[in-house]
Design a protein that fits this description.
disordered N terminus; 2 domains; Immunoglobulin-like; globular; mainly beta; about 0% helix
Length: about 400
């Protein structure tokens, strides 16, 4: 008889075990937006981000308390609260800024969310409503429209385009640190308009963040056609605090349950010495220790890429891509035109691309070629022939 050797395998679960904080974190907030403490009447609170004051994020905002500051260089709408308390039964939603910038809460004291903070992308639309792209949560990207001219493409770095329908995020762009702060991509049209991407929220508090309710940045629900899903991807939630407690939920998944499409989930990052095991996170995450001082923005030398001009027309430094009755750049040319890009702090051996997404039609990534300059600053050029109608351009630079 042969001897049978039995090997017992045990699953090994790994998680960070962090010690309680001994002192509050230093968060750069002067509290000039006051205390955010919405009451139960009305139970639906809408923050109009278009009312944010243009300026530098760390400027005192006492003269416009509660409206926040839109810093175009950071691409963020920043609220510097003294404290935040959202009672049970209260839902906080947002109207997008024209830039669709994400939301940052810098808080002097504690944050308590017993109600809901909602940064979900808009779901699929039908009829005349489907003629417009669906709106993302702040920091996310729009879903493609549909109408007599055809079906539109999802916007964003992972925007849905044939043959896939849904917007992608977590495994396609960005990074687990959520620096920079960026939300989910939109799905393409599929009989209805595509679902929009979930938004992006960053909460940094000197004290404790307690979530007994819900913070959601789910992607907008899209059509389901056979095995394909046309929804937006989940967005991003980042929290820095001395403690993160509660029995509630953080959710950055796609907006429909029962489907597990890879890449459609968003990102969650928690930086704290103490994270409650009872707090549910989707997708799941563990806590990491915050840097000293906490890292609010990407480092100064972070590589950047931007579109400088299209067919000799200067591109605005703060484009909005309205896609209706107006455009950032008007092109009167049906032959190939030059798109000029600029990189900073980026190796010239890298790859620079432009995504050209038609409002009605297809999308493609176009390679840009190095022209001049060095790692500190360099010029690149791509060519494209634009079809009649609206096209959205988005630049991407990938280091070797």
């Amino acid at each position: 008889m042969k001897k049978l050797r039995i090997l017992t395998l045990a699953a090994l679960g790994l998680a960070a075990c962090l010690q309680p904080a001994s002192a509050q974190l230093t968060i750069p907030s002067d509290g000039s937006d006051g205390a955010f403490n919405p009451s139960m009447d009305p139970t639906n609170v809408v923050i109009d981000l278009s009312q944010a004051v243009p300026g530098v994020w760390n400027a005192n905002n006492s003269a416009n308390a509660g409206r926040g500051i839109y810093d175009k260089d950071k691409w963020a709408i920043v609220f510097k609260y003294s404290s935040v308390n959202i009672p049970a039964g209260v839902t906080v939603r947002f109207i997008n800024h024209s830039s669709r910038a994400p939301v940052v809460w810098l808080v002097q004291g504690d944050v308590a969310v017993a109600g809901t903070v909602d940064l979900r992308g808009q779901s699929k639309q039908q009829g005349s409503a489907a003629l417009l792209p669906t709106e993302p949560g702040p920091g996310g990207f729009r879903g493609g429209p549909t109408g007599p001219q055809g079906g539109g493409i999802g916007l964003g770095p992972g925007g849905g385009a044939a043959p896939s329908g849904g917007g992608a995020y977590a495994t396609f762009y960005g990074n687990p640190r959520i620096l920079p702060l960026i939300g989910g991509s939109g799905g393409r049209a599929g009989g209805t308009s595509g679902g929009a991407g979930g938004g992006a929220l960053f909460v940094a508090a000197s004290g404790t963040v307690t979530v007994n309710g819900l913070i959601t940045a789910q992607g907008g629900v899209g059509a389901i056609n056979g095995g394909d899903y046309f929804g937006g991807s989940g967005g991003a939630i980042r929290i820095i605090a001395s403690q993160v407690l509660g029995t509630g939920e953080l959710n950055c998944l796609l907006g429909v349950s029962g489907y597990n499409y890879s890449g459609l989930e968003g990102r969650i990052r928690i930086e704290s010495p103490l994270l409650s095991a009872a707090l549910r996170t989707h997708p799941e995450t563990i806590a990491d220790l915050p840097a000293t001082p906490p890292e609010i923005w990407p480092p100064a030398a972070t590589p950047t890429v931007r579109i400088v001009s299209v067919d000799t027309n200067a591109a605005p430094t703060d484009p909005t891509a309205p896609l209706l009755s107006n455009a950032d750049v008007a092109i009167y040319n049906d032959t190939p035109v030059v798109i000029t890009l600029e990189t900073t702090d980026f190796p010239i051996e890298g790859v620079v691309q432009v995504r050209a997404a038609q409002k009605w039609g297809s999308a493609s990534w176009i390679r840009a070629w190095y022209v001049s300059g060095n790692q500190a600053q360099a010029q690149w050029r791509a060519t494209n022939t634009f079809v009649k109608g609206y096209t959205t351009l988005q630049a991407r630079a990938t280091a070797p």
